[in-house]
Amino acid sequence: MPDLLMPAWLGELRPLREALPVRRPGPWPGVALLLTALLLAGIGLATREELPDPGRLSPGPRLEQAQARGRLIVGVRAYPRPALPGAPVRAEPDPFDAALARALGDYLGLPVELLGLAPEQRELALREGRIDLLVAGAATPDGAGSTAIPASKRQGEGALIVLRGLDIHDGEGLRGRSLCLAEGSPYRRPLAERHGVRLREYPSAVHAIAAFMAGECQALAEARGLVDWLLQQPDWRFYRRLPLELRAPAAGHVRLAEGEPQAQAWLAAALGDWQRRGALDAVLAQRTGELAFDALKLEQGLICH
Asked: Where is the Solute-binding protein family 3/N-terminal domain positioned along the sequence (predicted)?
């Protein structure tokens, strides 16, 4: 797997690759380099021509209303972070949802208002027009108004953790087993469809981690980088990673109240550009770092409310 983008304070999760041997040039290095440069330049120009520029596309009537209003209103997940028992807590926007919402606002040239919504509030908020877009927990396509967020090639790999002594050794052994994961997890669909697990969803990844350690589920699904880091911690010495390939088919979905071809074409262009610029990878890496920090809080006695 490619090296993960991680915050500097978290350190390397895995050893660096060994240095590649230096290849000796052939008899025509100048010609070869020139041809390679011309080929790559041609591919680059062709690719740029094929990729739609969101700045040149109309965002459609719904998002034009947001431009006329002067701000973009986006529904997001919100939940409290780990805190000491008895301490006052407040729900905070999910970092991934918030970063994506602000990126879409930047593409539109608009400030963003985040509206934290519980799962049962989201459909109504969309239908009533209280939000322009919904990014909260949209892990699977749902209706004509969904636009997929391209999967991350560097951060899209997932992994599963189980107790060392548990008799599960492959995907078939997961069938009928309970599995903890965060609401909106990009791994939800492949786990349910291919492996027949019984999903238990929690408001956030750290809530799912706390529930798994409390014995509420037999397995935990999360990003591979976070799983590898957790298994290096002393409190996780009794757990192991299941040797199972798990990739996110998409990083999520952004939803409109209804299908609107112009808006969906604009969203697809903006989301594709966001991924190609590396911003999606950076946000997911930052998410892994923040989750690792929250997991350390659990070890220090803080709890999820």
From this structure: 71-292
Using an 8 Å Cβ cutoff, are 241 and 161 in contact?
Answer: yes
**Options 3.40.800.10, 3.30.1330.10, 3.40.190.10, 1.10.260.40; CATH of 157-247:** 3.40.190.10
Q: Could you tell me the two tokens for 281?
A: 């990878």
Instruction: Give CA–CA dist 57/178, Å, rounded.
Output: 45
- The two tokens of residue 52 are 């739609």
CATH architecture of 54-151+251-299: 3-Layer(aba) Sandwich (3.40)
Q: Which amino acid is at 57?
A: L
CA distance 149 to 283: 13
Read off the pLDDT of residues 119-160 as tens digits, 9 standing for 90 and up.
889 889 998 999 999 996 655 566 678 899 988 887 789 999
56: CB partners within 8 A, 6+ apart: none
Closest to 234 (Cα-Cα) out of 179, 296, 185:
296
What letter does residue 129 receive in the DSSP assignment? T
CA–CA gap between residue 120 and residue 109 (Å, rounded) = 30
Q: Which residue has the tokens 């997932």?
A: 158
Tokens representing 166 are 């548990």
